[in-house]
Amino acid sequence: MVESWSFLDTAESNFRPLVVIELSKGTKEETIEWFTKRIVDKKANGGAQLLIKPLVTENGVENIYLVGASHLRLLLGAEAVGLVKECSDNSMRTFTYSSRKTFKHYADDNHDFLTMAECQYIIKHELENLRARDEKMIPGYPQAKLYPGKSIVRRLLTSGILVQIFPLHDREELKKLSHSWYGRVKIGYQPLDDIRCYFGETIALYFGFLEYFTFALIPMAVIGIPYYVFAWEDYDKYVMFATFNLLWSTVILEVWKRMCAILTYRWGTLLMKRQFEEPRPGFHGVLGINPVTGREEPMYSSIKRQLRIYLVSLPFVCLCLYFSLYVMMIYFDLEQWALDYHKENESNFSSLMLYVPSIIYAVVIEIMNLIYRYAAEFLTSWENHRLESSYQNHLILKVLVFNFLNCFASLFYIAFVIVDMKLLRQSLATLLITSQILNQFAESLLPYWLQKRYDRRMRKRMCPTKTDMDLSLAEQVNMEKEMGTYLGTFDDYLELFLQFGYVSLFSCVYPLAAVFAVLNNITEIYSDALKMCRVYKRPFAEPTANIGVWQLAFETMSVISVVTNCILIGMSPEVDALFPDSKMDLVLTVALVEHLLLAIKFIMAFVIPDKPRDIQMKLAKLEFESLEALKQQVRAFQMQL
Amino acid sequence: MVESWSFLDTAESNFRPLVVIELSKGTKEETIEWFTKRIVDKKANGGAQLLIKPLVTENGVENIYLVGASHLRLLLGAEAVGLVKECSDNSMRTFTYSSRKTFKHYADDNHDFLTMAECQYIIKHELENLRARDEKMIPGYPQAKLYPGKSIVRRLLTSGILVQIFPLHDREELKKLSHSWYGRVKIGYQPLDDIRCYFGETIALYFGFLEYFTFALIPMAVIGIPYYVFAWEDYDKYVMFATFNLLWSTVILEVWKRMCAILTYRWGTLLMKRQFEEPRPGFHGVLGINPVTGREEPMYSSIKRQLRIYLVSLPFVCLCLYFSLYVMMIYFDLEQWALDYHKENESNFSSLMLYVPSIIYAVVIEIMNLIYRYAAEFLTSWENHRLESSYQNHLILKVLVFNFLNCFASLFYIAFVIVDMKLLRQSLATLLITSQILNQFAESLLPYWLQKRYDRRMRKRMCPTKTDMDLSLAEQVNMEKEMGTYLGTFDDYLELFLQFGYVSLFSCVYPLAAVFAVLNNITEIYSDALKMCRVYKRPFAEPTANIGVWQLAFETMSVISVVTNCILIGMSPEVDALFPDSKMDLVLTVALVEHLLLAIKFIMAFVIPDKPRDIQMKLAKLEFESLEALKQQVRAFQMQL
């Protein structure tokens, strides 16, 4: 079997392993042979034209394969995925093999022209686009059906033959990156360009947003500190803080769009053409002809999907929201009961009992979030979305709405039903701080510690004196394949989103929230960086031009916070005292101010351009050039007449 | 001089005049010679390669020229402007000369493949793109400077040498169109496709919107009638009507986007690539190198423009708004004074005096609108916008804000300051109906009557027995060049926008407004059609994919109307009676309902897709094909390896 690709090794002497493929233990020989043949086969024969080598360890061949590609193959792949790179004249252009000499840092012998993350992305793209031709099934597995055009890798994954595909870490690069990123305590920006080179644009953009958001919160935090230090309780100061906060949050979200455009222009993803999306792996249906592509693929009626969404998912989500509110009411009953108990029998035990309800509630909230997350994933999967992007949008929407209610419902209740600002401030602080500590622990430190322990045990078995750098390839692969899989930026953004909620929804009651958020985010940068570099498998790079649906989520939150803050200010006794004669005037004034603030927000969002002027100019220049090229063609044709 | 283009006449025997160029009376010979030479010259020599003929009348040559083009030239021009036409397989594709055989109705001898409006648009585009090469000035006019790349026609227009360029009517087509459009009273839709063929997409889309909007108002009108007939005054019925109205207006605006996509897909403009915009004729500045195009052209600092906008235009607009409010206050004072006078000395004269203030106010409003319009045009022109689209947006914004306040300020004052619902209803009805009557008169009937009178006089001089069809070309051109110029759809949309305001802003007070709007719009269709066909010069076709900034304007109006209606309902005595104990509860309930309605509106706008599914599929198919074509190229290259 090994012979079948040995000829490739001679063709390219320096095989550089980029991606690891792990097949399940008992995979049949014929399947392996067929799959590897397809991977190395020429493009003309429907192959991926990549290089593959089995990983040989002390225990012999273990169904683990290393995939690489020749330099030329990678350059052609870069053209196929539509990579955008910088030209010698500093403009960004879509890479094509024929124009390769015009690109910056390009040289025929420069194998660093494409970053390792880009190479791995290209290989992933090529593997996923390895499509069945006349095979009716995966050889050796009659139950794993194929049809012309079906992605082989996706079918192998869904039928369990393929355990995982993951890109290899580059120990040396990783060491450099982690040193400049979190290795030393320093004042300064993160090395975003290096992060992007190593982990790809999606992750770099998350860290860019995290950093930007932290800096953006600093003015709020600075203004918030004197409120705590001097224990200011004046109404006008709170109003000023809230007003500043509301307008500031609009400004930072608008300015982020501009920052994001600057970053993604530099990285080339702003200009990258969207690839045509293939159906997601889990999508199923009866075979039919896709009217768009003309290909045979599973089809699923959009009306059925709509029915599932509106008749099952929507009611279920509403029920969950209701249940969450019900649990909250039970919590408040318990709280009341504990208070009564404490009043009746004052003792050490009873004062301890005061904390029990909130502990129970906190635990229940976490459990509910967890169960709901599984339910949401199941439901969204059952809705059978054709595209991964549409699946993600529906999942994010479901999870966002529930998490929002689950986290903030008790605060809303305290603020607007119980109307106890002291309790609100206290609950807000407790919720914010404990959730931050819990998150940091559960998300980074715990996995890091587990990974470390596992590492140490693994290494003891192998050779206890070796450092990371001395590990053989086989040892490295074996260690990395056991690492956890990073499931994407969803949870990280969700955490920031909820934090933004704590900071802005009740900002006029608890100005100190921004201070805690800033402190948390500074450590968050370090712990997230640690998580990415040490805890998880290296993720595949994913090109992206913006933070997608999260922009909308943050903007919605900032609109909601205008409403909540206006109501809170309206309810404060200091404002009440300003309108001694008529409560009506008070309410009307508050409503007027709220509408004014909302109007200003929308006008500001409209007036601030989404892209900085120089990026606009660069984009216009590219557009102009492509239009001119088109005109030239027409003109050349007319000249001939 | 005539000889210089006579060779072209033999090349194409059937010269069809499409566009008329009128030069000023005293234009120098050398200028005419140079200009016509540039028009007929080959593309390779920097000409437009069109055909041109002087118009010979009884009085000799009158500096009026007819422009046409050969069939081949028009097809090449269609490719240059990026026209999208229907293929034989019913898909819409960008026309290219090389793929011409795949298009529906194409035949080498079928000269109707391009509509006359399309041909005229192509000629206009070619004339406007006739650019100076090494000329430093217009020959014969040293003060009319040129620089390489400057549009010759635009310079001729700004220096007054070129009086006007306009497309010729096609008497036969026009007769057919006007017959099917407004010739007979009939129930049914307008012939939108025919209108589009004759007048182009912008005008057809306006009539499409007008028709759609009229149909969309019918449900409101039907529900509104019983309120008048049975004199319902119950609070719950008004609330129901207002709620329906508010949600309905969101639905119709969202559905319009879908209708618009269907229309413009069929017309090909949805797919048409935006052309690179040249500086507008009035734009001036010092010569510099445009960083986008690399061409020499006038440059103007964007910071200077921003300063002019924010430091001059914005304060001026605010001042005008303040002045308009001031005039309104004077009106109310006058009204009060007239009322007092009437009470003191009750007589026929005094009861007549009651009407004087409102008549004066109506006249003053019209005069203010007019003066403001000129001021706005002057200011926007002074802001020196580089692009016509940006000029238009700034002008529309200025005019919209002022007209909104001027028309609705008195109603707002009556509703929320005087709080007199009876007076509000009465003012609303008066304003709506009188403005409709005045508009119809001033906009269509008066110009029609003037035009008719002028026509009759003209024809008496020529030959009194001739009908429209028998007129010679010279007579037709002479008649059309004296007709008024249609200045675009701005005023028509503005009228609809204000009407939408009357219908929706106070819908819970005066449900009958929708009935009047429907009645007005039915006659409006006829009078606007008459105006287009009989009163004005034929306008150049303008491809467009949507109604642009008006969509935003209507959506903003529908958001404002949620606020006004909620306040109005909250103030009604019936609702007041429901909350006898606490005014607070009333206000809070109203605020809650308002926020709910706004949230529902935004969710609806988000959930309803902007394009119908089948259009989405067709667009996806085209995108897929172009991506596949790109991939094929890459693959073909890889195969060679």
From TrEMBL, chains A, B:
<dbReference type="InterPro" id="IPR049452">
    <property type="entry name" value="Anoctamin_TM"/>
</dbReference>
<feature type="transmembrane region" description="Helical">
    <location>
        <begin position="395"/>
        <end position="416"/>
    </location>
</feature>
<feature type="transmembrane region" description="Helical">
    <location>
        <begin position="309"/>
        <end position="332"/>
    </location>
</feature>
<keyword id="KW-0472">Membrane</keyword>
<keyword id="KW-0812">Transmembrane</keyword>
<comment type="similarity">
    <text>Belongs to the anoctamin family.</text>
</comment>
<keyword id="KW-1133">Transmembrane helix</keyword>
<protein>
    <recommendedName>
        <fullName>Anoctamin</fullName>
    </recommendedName>
</protein>
<feature type="transmembrane region" description="Helical">
    <location>
        <begin position="212"/>
        <end position="232"/>
    </location>
</feature>
<dbReference type="GO" id="GO:0005886">
    <property type="term" value="C:plasma membrane"/>
</dbReference>
<feature type="transmembrane region" description="Helical">
    <location>
        <begin position="238"/>
        <end position="256"/>
    </location>
</feature>
<feature type="domain" description="Anoctamin transmembrane">
    <location>
        <begin position="195"/>
        <end position="621"/>
    </location>
</feature>
<feature type="transmembrane region" description="Helical">
    <location>
        <begin position="352"/>
        <end position="374"/>
    </location>
</feature>
<dbReference type="Pfam" id="PF04547">
    <property type="entry name" value="Anoctamin"/>
</dbReference>
<feature type="transmembrane region" description="Helical">
    <location>
        <begin position="586"/>
        <end position="608"/>
    </location>
</feature>
<dbReference type="InterPro" id="IPR007632">
    <property type="entry name" value="Anoctamin"/>
</dbReference>
<dbReference type="GO" id="GO:0005254">
    <property type="term" value="F:chloride channel activity"/>
</dbReference>
<feature type="transmembrane region" description="Helical">
    <location>
        <begin position="496"/>
        <end position="519"/>
    </location>
</feature>
